[in-house]
Amino acid sequence: MKRILIAGALALATAAPALAADLPPPAAPPPRAPVAYIPAGPIFSWTGFYVGLNAGGAFGNSSWTTPSGPVSSFSTIGALFGGQIGGNYQIGQFVIGAEGDFDWQNLRGASASGICGVAAVGGCAVASNWIATIRGRAGFAADRALFYITGGGAFTDVKPSTAALPYGGGTEAGWTAGGGIEYAMTDNWTAKVEYLFASFQNATCNASACAAPLAVPAMAISPATVSFHENIVRAGVNYKF
Q1: Rg value, the chain, Cα
Q2: Burial class (CB in 10 A: 0-12, 13-18, 19+), 175
């Protein structure tokens, strides 16, 4: 019996290669689908010059101070619109640039009662019809979104008045700072929302500055130093060349 089993095993071992050779070859694996190649689009660059328009609102306050101390403080509010021009230069993801703008505004405010000067009884008021800024900008670009801070010089016409004196004053220089977000909708058109704080400290209101003849001697009104601050919130669009 052992001899029979050993002989059968040897026969199977001898026949296995022949049987394997007679079997059909295994089927080839199905071809892999080709991977579609989609070329990456060009990365947006903020480098370039631009012009644009903006509109929004402003609110703030005005404080009046005479040599004897503070006499009045009140709120101001109004709308504004205008335009801007500027340029950017992108280095990696950082963007630096400069911008100048000019806006017409109808910022107004008044104190219904109070003494704005020694002989000026009955309240005081202030107005501004325009504001302009020249600012530097620095920001971080996340492709088409730009987050930036900005600051520089500001100019406006601060026009103080009292019950006895009509609007006077003139152009005043100050400073401004703020920040914003700008987004490139296309390769040429961008939209932005920004906030600016502007401060003007040195306007004056007296018989000469407010430019009106008085029923009382000019020296009867103590010159008042008029500070003027405004918060600007505005949206804009730019065309980038």
Answers
A1: 38
A2: middle
Would you mind telling me the total number of residues written for the chain in this entry? Answer: 241
pLDDT tens, residue by residue, 157-207 = 988 877 666 666 678 999 999 999 999 999 999 999 999 999 998 887 765
Q: Which of 228, 106, 140 is nearest to 176 (CA)?
A: 228
User: Taking a C-beta distance cutoff of 8 angstroms, is the pair 197, 179 a contact?
Assistant: no
Query: What single-letter amino acid sits at 150?
Result: T
Q: Containing domain of residue 135, as a range?
A: 48-240
CATH of the domain at 200: 2.40.160.20
CA distance 82 to 199: 19
Nearest to 151 by CA among 174, 134, 132: 134
Tell me if residue 9 falls in helix, strand or coil.
helix
